[in-house]
Amino acid sequence: MPKSLLAVVFAAVALAASACGSSSSSSSSSSAPAGGSTGQTCSPATNKTLTANTLTIGTDNPAYYPYFSGGPGHEWSGKYNNDPYKDKGFEDAVAYAVAKQMGYSPSQVKWAVTHFNQSFAPGPKNFDFYLAQVSIKPNRAQNADFSAPYYSANQAVVAIKGTPISKATSLAALKPYKLGTQIGTTSYDYITQTIQPSQQPQAYTTTNDAINALKNGQIDGLVVDLPTAFYMTAVQIPNSTIVGQFAPSPGGDQWGLVLSKGSPLTPCVNQAVNALSSAGTLDQLRQTWLSEKASAPVLQ
């Protein structure tokens, strides 16, 4: 994770997880992206969802613009669980596009709140699928299914203007500094595995905590995905700058929809995502919501 910009303050009440007991389906379900048609009949009437004829979509709280947008102030609010966002924000628009492709009308979509790390953790889910800039990773796929990717994102580092790190022009130049990000994210993995700073990086429970750490000088740089970096520097962190972005490793940092491990819905979700990709819909949504109007140099 992630990510016309307004500051956001969020408060939401997590929906109770639905206990959905269904027998194991013989339809194939993948723990990694799968493509193409499986021949499975997919419709609201036949899909095995938490609630019949309803698609429950989960996301994190806070849910940031440009990924999600609600009412005044673009905040996530519990009332929007029963009043769809109406396609505002990149992931919001992706969610409704997938739902439509699967045959669900907006009135058949319900929203649930699940924190990022819980989305791919073992155990029952309160959603049929989830999206919140969740990168597809083998270790996560051990406990959850992932759809075909709907977006590939670069990582970037944000710093306060005028600080020594803001002048870095290479990965090597970042090594002496204290870096931070949200725990459990690919941003943290990038720090430890690729940048490999000389100081132990900080992992924060929420992105808000990491933002405050940067503002307070507890860390020198904050590593997030590039769309989120643009939003942070424009709205959330005064006098900040994008030091640079990092070209993704082979295959890129790809985001997928998260489903319960072995979900009978996985093939249907894959069909929908792949159809939207082939039609150019996902690219159109990316350009609408995540167009990068500012340049960010690539650090190598």
- DSSP summary, beta strand count: 12
Q: Tally the helices: what do you get?
A: 8
Span of the ends, CA to CA: 21 Å
CATH fold category name of the largest domain: D-Maltodextrin-Binding Protein, domain 2
- Secondary structure class reads alpha/beta
The CATH class label of the largest domain is Alpha Beta
Task: Give short descriptive properties of this protein.
300 residues, alpha/beta, D-Maltodextrin-Binding Protein, domain 2, 2 domains, 8 helices, 12 strands, disordered N terminus
Question: How are the secondary structure elements laid out?
Answer:
Elements: E1 55-59, H1 90-101, E2 109-113, H2 116-119, E3 129-130, H3 138-141, E4 144-146, E5 151-153, E6 155-160, E7 179-182, H4 186-195, E8 202-204, H5 207-215, E9 221-225, H6 226-236, E10 240-246, E11 253-255, E12 258-260, H7 266-278, H8 281-290
Parallel strand pairs: 1-2, 1-3, 7-8, 7-9
Antiparallel strand pairs: 4-12, 5-11, 6-9, 6-10
